[in-house]
Design goal:
single chain; mainly alpha; Ribonuclease iii, N-terminal Endonuclease Domain, Chain A; 0% strand
Length: 231
């Protein structure tokens, strides 16, 4: 931009100097009777100005193309890294998305885009609670409602469970957030973790797949928490 401004200033400077100079010379030639030479001078002056304008236009276009190219390179680099991270994440959880846009959305925070993971996170929360309930009832059909509620709350806890699971998957390095937002924030990691299961259920058209993945990702946490609940 600075170079472009300099060119424009130079153009106006040359133009002003040329206008005053050639007008004086042309007037002198006309008074002297040499109208042909005066006419040639006018044509030459106009050609010089047009050539200068053309050169400035070419330089301006080149600068814009170069700037656009630099921006595109940065965007492509960012997109490429994000795509690689999503591929790695799918390998980690053992589920390959048919609709890749769902996992992209699951890994997008509200601060980054209006197309974010809020709805998928809410859906994922219910899937996790359903998964926990199924696992506990399968182990003990006589479990009390109080114990079931406590266990669900423990597994759904942002800091002690949800965010820890998300950190094990490295979600703080994958979730897209605005420049001023901390992606390692527990609430953001937890929301992304929950959104994964909402995305899986939506992609598969049923919650069964999402429950299977949650059981796999959460690991043997069930047994650990069950033992705590019954102490």
């Amino acid at each position: 931009m600075k170079s472009l401004k300099i060119c424009y200033r130079l153009f106006y400077l040359i133009k002003s100097c040329q206008v005053s100079g050639w007008k004086q010379r042309a007037a002198f030639l006309i008074v002297g009777g040499d109208r042909k030479q005066a006419s040639t001078m006018v044509v030459t002056h106009r050609f010089t100005l047009l050539l200068l304008v053309a050169l400035i236009g070419i330089f301006s276009s080149f600068s814009q193309v170069r700037a656009t190219s630099d921006i595109n390179v940065r965007i492509e680099s960012f997109s490429s890294t994000f795509a690689t991270d999503l591929a790695t994440l799918q390998t980690q959880i053992g589920y390959k998305f048919t609709n890749i846009n769902l996992i992209r959305r699951a890994m997008t925070h509200g601060s980054f885009s209006q197309e974010n993971n809020k709805a998928l996170s809410i859906f994922g929360t219910h899937i996790i609670e359903t998964s926990v309930s199924l696992q506990l009832l399968a182990k003990d059909i006589d479990i009390s409602s109080k114990a079931l509620t406590r266990f669900i709350a423990e597994v759904s806890n942002v800091s002690s469970s949800c965010a820890l699971d998300g950190n094990r998957l490295g979600l703080e390095r994958i979730i897209r957030v605005s420049p001023k937002t901390d992606a390692s924030n527990s609430a953001i990691v937890c929301a992304g973790f929950r959104a994964i299961f909402g995305a899986i259920a939506t992609d598969a058209g049923k919650v069964d797949e999402a429950i299977k993945v949650f059981v796999k990702v959460h690991g043997d946490g069930y047994g650990r928490f069950v033992s705590v609940l019954y102490i």
